TrEMBL record, chains A, B:
Keyword Lyase: yes
Keyword set includes Oxidoreductase: no
Keywords: Folate biosynthesis, Lyase, Pyridoxal phosphate
Pathway this chain belongs to: Cofactor biosynthesis; tetrahydrofolate biosynthesis; 4-aminobenzoate from chorismate: step 2/2
Record's protein name: Aminodeoxychorismate lyase
Molecular functions per Gene Ontology: 4-amino-4-deoxychorismate lyase activity; pyridoxal phosphate binding
Subunit composition and interactions: Homodimer.
Reactions this protein catalyses: 4-amino-4-deoxychorismate = 4-aminobenzoate + pyruvate + H(+)
Annotated organism of origin: Kushneria sinocarnis
Family per similarity comment: Belongs to the class-IV pyridoxal-phosphate-dependent aminotransferase family.
Top-rank taxon, per record: Bacteria
GO cellular component: cytosol
Length: 284, 284
């Protein structure tokens, strides 16, 4: 069933909107080049999976397909959000749900120096809550991500690695995670059956056979020949250093990947090339 | 540190508000009688605990204390919400947080027939995610409650009982839970160290020694002489029937408490009287 949604771009939202009150909705953040969305089908698929799981009627397809073209020339981010709208009694949803669509287009430039040089990551103390019924979805309940990201401010640390309540490595705060296994000679990425966001770039790399899902053992990443974080907006950032601490100048070095070493370079640049081909980003 | 908050009652919220984008904020729902808030100190304490945990500066006390009086004569609900405001880069919070306060006052009439007659509850299939770092707080990430409440629509079923991911009984979708233990001769309520909302009425009943926190075994509720759900808005609803199903006319009866039996009446009406004294509601 498709719903007629209330949409008016970036208009303010009534204070009784259930997205605001309860995080009752989903969102997508889409890279758009010259008005053409990248990985559009994957974004739509995840959006619809989220709406279905939450029981929010999906908007008419046209309500979404017209949006990317409005970004005009150059690189931009289209952020769109669909909430369950207003109404209901407390947590109870209204009988006649009128979803609310909001969207914004923002100019965008990727952190391209990180494609080449890689990044430093740290371990977050925050643990992701296990909730298999919502795992993988990009819903509006994102306090885990916000509070994990709040652990550090040093700009020299680009991302934080997140474990779940059982200590299993899952993702980074805003990116998925992969590592090249020394023995299997494959890129591995954590299963997201308990928590985490199933990124659209992760989805297409899984479909292409570039990635294999695993349950990450505690030492998987340290023993890996190469590792990276990635998403559909920034592309692939190789991991150069894994730190323990909140400041790069005082943190303990846990792991160091020598990005110029051919054994590290080769798998990394191959995965990056495959990913960047899907986003229109260059091979490094 | 107290922050100057952006407040304008129930004005719409910008689409980049972090409460909307990520559920990055907290709320309270307060019973107000003739302009006087009930359990005000407990509501403020939980609000501040939530703000501190999330790292959102608290508003000047005056910004909140002036609100209940605006409800005027009669019974009303004051709902107030504080978000981290706008700004930041994705999940990353802005350096200079400008919290946003919104509030609404709605006329209110409690479901007083339920005080006397009790209610039917059902078991929710939905499981609460364990997240000890946020347990007890009334933050804006409430998909667990919304999706649990969405399991049934039959108005003859007043509440749903929620277990966590390990199967431990925690609360109802919008109320806390207690039962009178046959052997201990005490009212018990689940510990909320892993998940659940620590209701303000629950807090004051714990402080008064009316309730004792326990980890609920699987059969605790069934073996109880009496049971109830309660919150600071509706007061205490005795449990009359515990059903398994989504419709009261086809559900399997799991438990039946004979509310006219003196052994059930006595502890129930005593707890209810203690709770209702705090809310200005009558003894039954």
């Amino acid at each position: 069933m498709n719903a007629e949604v209330h949409s008016s771009g970036d208009a303010p939202v009534p204070v009784d909107d259930r997205g605001l009150a309860f995080g009752d909705g989903v969102f997508e953040t889409i890279l758009v080049r010259d008005g053409q969305p990248l990985l559009w089908e994957s974004h739509l698929a995840r959006l619809h999976a989220g709406l279905q799981r939450l029981g929010i009627p999906a908007p008419e397809p046209d309500a979404l397909t017209v949006l990317p073209a409005q970004a005009g020339h150059g690189l931009a981010i289209l952020k769109l959000m669909i909430t369950r709208g207003s109404g209901g009694r407390g947590y109870q949803v209204p009988e006649d749900v009128q979803p609310r669509l909001r969207w914004r287009i923002m100019p965008f430039a990727p952190r391209s120096e990180r494609w080449q040089d890689g990044i430093a990551v740290r371990s977050c103390a925050w643990r992701l809550a296990r909730q298999p019924a919502l795992a993988g979805l990009k819903h509006l309940n994102r306090l885990d991500n916000v509070l994990a990201r709040r652990e550090w401010t040093d700009p020299a640390i680009a991302e934080g690695l997140l474990r779940d309540g059982e200590g299993v490595l899952i993702e980074a705060t805003a990116m998925n995670l992969a590592w090249f296994d020394r023995d299997a000679r494959r890129w591995l990425t954590p299963r997201l059956e308990q928590c985490g966001v199933a990124g659209t770039l992760r989805e297409v790399l899984l479909e292409e056979g570039q990635l294999t899902e695993v349950e990450a053992g505690p030492a998987a990443l340290e023993q890996a020949e190469a590792a990276c974080v990635f998403n559909s907006v920034q592309g692939v950032w190789p991991l150069e250093r894994w730190l323990e601490g909140v400041r790069s100048d005082t943190a303990v070095l846990r792991c160091h990947w020598r990005l110029r070493d051919p054994a590290v370079q080769k798998p990394l640049r191959d995965l990056q090339a495959a990913a960047h081909a899907r986003l229109g980003y260059p091979r490094m």
